[in-house]
Amino acid sequence: MDLNCSLKCTDLSSCLEGSILWVKETGHLLLENRVGLKGDKSCISVLTMNLLMGNYRRYTCRFVLADKVKTEVHYTPVFSDSTDWPPLSYILLILRITGLILMISIIAVVSTRTRGS
């Protein structure tokens, strides 16, 4: 998922690398962003999120000029439940089912042998 943050600029020289920053709710700076220009005099930054980034509830886009925060916007992404499982989840599910079947088989064999003795 991508979060987009854009700012209309009268002076595109203020749209420099590092002028738009992304911050997690913990206050830590995120480095996973790209800053660029759009044709309509907008400075834009894109934060590409993935599930490995952690379960944070809020991300902040900050416009910084001369080491001062000029404005910021807070994003609260909403992840919907999806039927698309990552491959690792399928593998773990198969391992759990296999383990359960193996335990049931061992219990059945042990109980059959102890009853027969």
UniProtKB/TrEMBL annotation:
Keywords, sorted A to Z: Membrane, Transmembrane, Transmembrane helix
Domain of life: Eukaryota
Transmembrane segments: 88-110
Name listed for the protein in its UniProt record: Ig-like domain-containing protein
